[in-house]
Design brief:
476 residues; alpha+beta; five-stranded mixed beta sheet; four-stranded mixed beta sheet; globular
Length: 476
């Protein structure tokens, strides 16, 4: 089992230690060495919390910009320059640079710093495969269209072989430690996609695949579950998510409805138990901290503070305790963020139109099965509070208009229904701190936030609404 290792770069007197550092940072300076302004966008995913840093800037000619990055282990950044996407590699404490120059035809990038050979390799790889996302994007195309799960396995293995071959062909151009890291990353990516595809086809597409005999053993193919060297890398963390989800579903026999508050708590508890059963040491601590921080951020009302004590590392415990007491986005009493969105009749509805009514807002998307599972509960709430100053508002994001209209009709939604697209989607996602769907918000009759990320329609939110109705009546 591979643990946190130290590798020496080929032909260089440099030691690189890979492993998770919650406080890790790196810097990347972008030089615009052209005579034109460049649109530069950079996205950086990190583990705790598992979110992204996003930078978007228009860089003037002959100027530079330094990106300060959360870098908890070796990671790939998504760098887009005037619409062309690149992968850039960084590690904690790195201080690299990329310079954009331009001839009469196109922009070219030149890298400097200790990771220069790796980033040059990634550019060559992008050119060879005609995409910066060629190691994962083609895998998504087969998930829904495959006739059987064997085809998905074969496709994933074929894509992996192509990228391993390219890595082997360029082995002399990259440091030995990176070769070993990339070898593992590609294999974890392959295993994770197989597990994810099986779960997605079952839960989202209602496709019941025949699982091959010894499926899990074949998927892992001696790949270690716990690998400290890879901790914090996005592909390894996604693999752990899918592996633990697969193990939990095969063991969980709870009869509680996961769309209720009690069911949500039981489901989270089952997830915690699976982590404790499957992982150990630092891998367990890092992943459990990630898992608990996600729960605190998305469903704090279903969180048991005793779970924090299951994390052994005191530093991670402190982080979780700080998350519990951190001032949230949209704290109680803050004003409802403004919106002006079309309904299904193309009438534009503004946020202040709901003044004088208690408002439950549900953000959702047509691809989100947990969102759709809430619709019957939402319709029941509309009926329950009919004739009272209570409104249920569904706002769809990440959704095409025709799909949105079809879903409203298919499920007979009794709520008010609005669609947020383009800049409105981006604004509302930021204003309401939307990191996952479904996302519910409770607002009082004065347009003040009662609770952002409140219980969903199926999680006894009617009790909170009833309490607000009493307070509203008393205020008169």
């Amino acid at each position: 089992m591979i643990q946190c290792l130290i590798f020496s770069c080929k032909n260089e007197n440099v030691e690189i230690q890979l492993g998770f550092n919650i406080d890790g940072r790196s810097f990347l300076t972008f030089h615009n060495d052209t005579e034109d302004s460049l649109h530069v966008n950079l996205t950086n995913w990190h583990t705790i919390p598992m979110r992204s840093q996003e930078f978007d800037t228009l860089l003037a000619p002959r100027t530079s910009f330094e990106f300060s990055l959360i870098t908890q282990n070796a990671t790939y950044l998504d760098l887009t320059v005037d619409g062309i996407k690149y992968k850039v590699f960084t590690i904690p404490d790195d201080n690299g640079a990329v310079t954009a120059s331009k001839d009469t035809r196109s922009i070219s990038l030149a890298f400097s710093g200790e990771l220069q050979p790796i980033n040059e390799f990634l550019v060559n790889k992008m050119v060879n495969f005609n995409s910066a996302d060629a190691d994962w994007m083609p895998r998504t195309n087969i998930v829904a269209s495959a006739e059987n799960f064997e085809d998905i396995i074969k496709t994933n293995d074929s894509i992996t072989r192509l990228h391993l071959k390219f890595l082997e062909e360029n082995v002399d151009l990259v440091p030995e430690w990176f070769y070993d890291f990339e070898l593992h990353r590609l294999n974890y990516l392959n295993a994770g996609f197989k597990l994810n595809s099986l779960n997605y086809r079952k839960s989202m597409l209602n496709i019941k695949d025949t699982v091959p005999e010894n499926f899990l053993e074949t998927v892992l193919d001696s790949l270690p579950i716990s690998n400290e060297m890879m901790l914090g890398n996005t592909r390894y963390m996604y693999f752990l998510i899918d592996y633990l989800s697969f193990r939990e579903k095969s063991q969980n026999v709870s009869t509680l409805d996961p769309d209720t508050k009690e069911g949500a708590k039981a489901s989270f508890g089952s997830g915690v138990n699976t982590i404790l059963d499957e992982l150990s040491g630092k891998v367990k601590d890092v992943y459990l901290t990630y898992y608990l921080s996600k729960m605190i951020n998305l469903r704090r009302y279903a969180f048991d503070e005793k779970w924090i004590n299951l994390v052994e590392d005191e530093k991670y415990q402190s982080y979780l305790l700080e998350e519990m007491t951190a001032n949230p986005v949209l704290p109680t009493g803050s004003a409802l963020p403004y919106f002006n969105l079309p309904d299904s009749s193309n009438n534009f509805i503004e946020s202040h139109d709901y003044k004088g009514q208690i408002l439950l807002i549900n953000f959702w998307a047509t691809w989100c099965k947990p969102c759709i599972q809430q619709f019957p509960y939402e319709n029941e709430l509309v009926d329950q509070f009919a004739g009272k100053p209570v409104k249920l508002l569904n706002i769809a994001i990440q959704t095409k208009e025709d799909s949105w209209r079809n879903m409203i009709n298919k499920h007979g939604l009794k709520s008010d229904n609005l669609l947020a697209q383009g800049n409105w989607e981006e604004k509302l996602s930021k204003d309401f701190d939307i990191n996952g769907l479904p996302h519910s918000v409770l607002v009082d009759w004065e347009g003040k936030i009662v609770q952002n990320k409140c219980p969903r329609a199926g999680e006894n939110v009617e009790e909170l609404i009833a309490e607000l109705l009493v307070k509203m009546e008393e205020s008169k």
